[in-house]
Automatic annotation (TrEMBL):
Keywords: Oxidoreductase. Residues 28-357 form the NADH:flavin oxidoreductase/NADH oxidase N-terminal domain. Belongs to the NADH:flavin oxidoreductase/NADH oxidase family. The lineage of its organism: Bacteria, Bacillati, Actinomycetota, Actinomycetes, Micrococcales. Its cofactor is FMN. Its EC number is 1.-.-.-. Signal peptide: none annotated. One of its GO terms (molecular function) is FMN binding. This is N-ethylmaleimide reductase. Pfam families: Oxidored_FMN. One of its GO terms (cellular component) is cytosol. InterPro entries: Aldolase_TIM, OxRdtase_FMN_N, Oye-like.
Amino acid sequence: MKRSDGRSGSQGIHRDPAGLGPTVSLYESAVFGALQLSNRVVMAPLTRTRADDDGVPTDVMVEYYRQRAGQGLIISEGTWPAAEGKSYPGQPGIVTPAQIEGWRSVTEAVHASGGTIVMQLMHGGRVSHPAISGEPRVVAPSALAAPGQTRTPAGKADLPVAHALTAEEIPLVVEQFAQAARNAIEAGFDGVEVHGANGYLVHEFLSPVSNIREDQYGGSPENRARFAIEVTGAVAAAVGAERTGIRLSPQHNIQGVLEEDDADVRDTYTAVAERLAPLGLAFVDVLNASPTGELVQHIRATLGAPLIVNSGFATPTSREEAEALVADGWADAVAAGRPVIANPDLVERWQSGAELNEPRPELFYGSTAEGYTDYPSLESVRA
Ligand SMILES: Cc1cc2nc3c(=O)[nH]c(=O)nc-3n(C[C@H](O)[C@H](O)[C@H](O)COP(=O)(O)O)c2cc1C
């Protein structure tokens, strides 16, 4: 496949493990495990910080997700399975009864509009701060700080040196993920996605730079893969593998979670994929600059689940890129982030070739409806 950006896909590798055939269109329906997708445009997980101070989803969040139910699958914003995992003010949780009830309003609105929605379970690990989480410590595989600062309600602050989870504490965190998954299903979600990407807790275990442990969770690629495998296994056991996916971002090199040795990266993600393959997951969602490249397609072939891809932050996902990735068989679906923020009816716009609204990044992490639920739909413009 020749791409306009000059990247070309690897030839001769196993594609299409889901048996969907190479001529499927982005706008065709799909079945990923227990999930029914009306099309293959997935709303990427997007932190938007509009929950209340108790991590409870607000009415404006209900409206935001309802507006976006036309995407074939919504993956919710990263949602914390434990207060220690809260990374940003305004980020929602899935721990308390009030949070479960709040999310129920979201899932009911999405379902009433014909959508399918899974929750991204995001434990921020060392990318957090006591002034944000209200907890005395931040946790990580090793006693290291993520580089840089974070914005707390009291102003900017350095990210703190983490408490290295002990081998005795790790099963408790794994269980927090499993309980959060049960809570998500109770709240009406169709499934869950383990956030194993972007420099947060699960990803921190995968990298030899953020994980310098010397026990069974550190050192070799297999050991560093163990936490991701245990979390995903526990979540799948709790709510069913057919309702469980995982997001991975190999070589994203973000938040000090560096993966710079190609051979080590391949071994680490091979270990993850080989051990998750027997579960029969609903999907694997990979963020990587080269979705058609050898590494992503190797993960797909090894894991054997339907593949959702996203080519990362460099440029917003375009219609041409998304259509080609699915039509040429490189992916079963494409996750779009910023285009869905700005265009609640993105599928309709892409399919009809309509003009797109421009995103307003300065309002991505706001706290009101502005820049959130006020992007016009085609219908409202034409009315
Ligand atoms: C405002 C914003 C918030 C994001 N929050 C999350 C998140 O909670 N979880 C996650 O896995 N990725 C998150 N991402 C990454 C997106 O899912 C996506 O990978 C990225 O935006 C690139 O896709 P795009 O070019 O279609 O926007 C976020 C991105 C943006 C712009």
